[in-house]
């Protein structure tokens, strides 16, 4: 019997994959806070009393890169002269809700959640990272390196891993590719699961827990360059068209002064020795301004999938 979402098998997958991620996360995010309990201390006494709350959802590095994002948040705090709090959320939908309510002022998000947030409540672009000379990324469909599967068609009847329901590269793109074939995840795969991040999806494929997965090209490439323990055991069988890179967004409720200050810090970080060093560890060339139209291809793809669903 076909299963969708998180079934019994999926639960065991997440239990298997989650432990290592959690221990790494605990090590990298020693100062992690949440909305329910925010860290105090360590901020310079001269900082203004109202903190800027920042969530990191859509990253262009693996989870191990969180340490560098945290370092960059500290850099922002010092440059802004205002305390910065990291808000701990992994779920893209939840981060969108926090940006909408103003409980998060700034967030690193995926292209898919940005498109949805912009349409629903006016989520605003601030800047975008430029990586490897460009502001685009791709969805990679991957399988084990020793797998005989050569293309997406070869995954029919197999077990597949998506990342997050709102992820562009980890959910929307493969769903769109299937729709073009006249299929849905439910009709095409024997089972599909959500790993909640790209690292776990890569690991799941490498260890044979699933037959294939859709992952962010920037994260796969970063891992393949810095720690290819799992990527070296996978291969790319499909590469999508390019899409607008995961941007940095702000809440509509953020005051103009703070917004402009943040924008200036992002856009000039590569000119500062310390900022440049942090960006290099994040494998980001610099932050640049980006137009909303960069995400039109995601909109068109999403609209096409939605219209097809209505016809069924």
Characterize this entry briefly.
By secondary structure, the chain is an alpha/beta fold.
CATH hierarchy, class of the largest domain: Alpha Beta
Helices and strands: which structural class? Answer: alpha/beta
Tell me the CATH topology of the largest domain: D-Maltodextrin-Binding Protein, domain 2
Helix content: 40-55%
- Described by the principal axes of the CA atoms, the overall outline is globular
| Share of residues in strands | 15-25%
Rg measurement, Å: 19 Å
Order of helices and strands: HEHEHEHEEEEHHEHEHEEEHHEH
H/I helix tally:
11
CATH architecture of the largest domain: 3-Layer(aba) Sandwich
Strand order of the largest sheet: 2-1-3-12-4-13
CATH superfamily of the largest domain: Periplasmic binding protein-like II
Specify the biggest β-sheet.
6 strands, mixed
Structural overview:
This protein is of the alpha/beta class. It has two domains: 22-33 and 46-135 and 246-302, 3-Layer(aba) Sandwich (D-Maltodextrin-Binding Protein, domain 2); 139-240, D-Maltodextrin-Binding Protein, domain 2 (3-Layer(aba) Sandwich), CATH 3.40.190. Helix content is 42%, strand content 19%. It is built from eleven helices and 13 strands. A six-stranded mixed sheet has the order 2-1-3-12-4-13, with helices on one face.
